[in-house]
Amino acid sequence: MLWSAHRFNALATLSPREIARFQALGEAPVSHRKGARIRGQGDPVRGIYLMIDGWVASSLILANGARLIQKIHLAGDILGTPSMVLDRSADTLTALTDAVTAYVPEDRMGALLTSEPRLAAVFLMAVQVERLVLMDMLATKGHSSAVEQFAMFLLDLHARLTPLGLVHDDTFDLPLTQEAIGDVLGITSVHTNRTIRDLETQRLIERRGHAVRLLDPAALRRLAPLPERRLRPDPAWLPRAE
Predict the structure, then answer these.
(1) How far, in Å, CA of 142 to CA of 1, rounded?
(2) Whole domain around residue 164: which residue ranges?
(3) How many independent structural domains does the chain possess?
(4) pTM value > 0.85
(5) Is residue 66 situated within a structural domain?
(6) List of residues 6+ apart from 158 with CB closer than 8 A
(7) How far apart are alpha carbons 150 and 167 in whole angstroms?
(8) DSSP assigned state of 57
(9) pLDDT band, very low/low/confident/very high, at 30 (cuts 50, 70, 90)
């Protein structure tokens, strides 16, 4: 099972050799059971992780014990990059479903950035995408309704799951508890339940078990508090491929 470079291919046209270099970064894939902690907040930092399969949450535990999920990771993501500048991990990585990751020691990442300056630039672009996501999250929390935030959350998942072949007829699996969704949006599980029912009543979504169908993606987009972010692939400043 290989790590998918599709998120990096969305930023730059990678050659087969470059994709192979990215995929060769990780050690042997490791399986994690649902609920397993991959790395805890405060653990020593010695590397990062390639996300191969499943769903993983990046979360912070505040001094008062509250949990805040910063990011839901899917296949093709790279986990733990914010902590690369720290001695100890800033967040906790938890498997929300059965998941598979591949560990990348720091020295391997450093060697790639030294030997492959173009891939280093693509990695920089990927980090900026993550920064943009956090900017949007900060902009909406406290300034948008729960319905608006949840609409944007569903559209983001739809966009990220589509390249993985996990969206069919605008339907995808959402294997998150209402508590976890509430942690992402910064609301209670009760408020989360009310928000989901509101979107169902408006005939914007439909649920069957864990499956969610977007009945009117265009209406959800109009409801979202921020415009769709369209990536600019192969920017002029990016070093040319060999």
Answers:
(1) 41
(2) 144-223
(3) 2
(4) yes
(5) yes
(6) 167, 170, 172, 214, 217
(7) 18
(8) E
(9) very high
